[in-house]
Amino acid sequence: MQDGSFVFPETSLTEFAEKLSLLRGIERPVLDRTEIKGFFDITLRSAASAILDDDGPSLFALVEEQLGLKLVPAKAPVEVLVIDHVEKPSEN
After folding, report:
1. pLDDT tens string for the chain (92 positions)?
2. Domain edges within the chain
3. Among 22, 31, 36, 89, which residue carries the largest CB count within 10 Å?
């Protein structure tokens, strides 16, 4: 974060999508379907205040306005890790 902006240096769009998934206000898996290859310095201006201010622009709007990328709800398969059993380790 820098001056209220989220900065993603030398980031692929796949990595950027993964990081967007973690942000409050999005909180769901984001998949990169752009097929754009390479690494980019991405800055999402005013993103910190967008997360904190309920009356401000959404992160969805910021991504579209600033980067020209549209986050579209869709159904897609995602990887899930299921842990069906856990035990404390023995004292060996």
Report:
1. 777 788 999 999 999 999 988 887 787 888 899 999 999 999 988 887 777 777 777 888 888 999 999 988 888 887 889 999 999 998 87
2. 1-92
3. 31
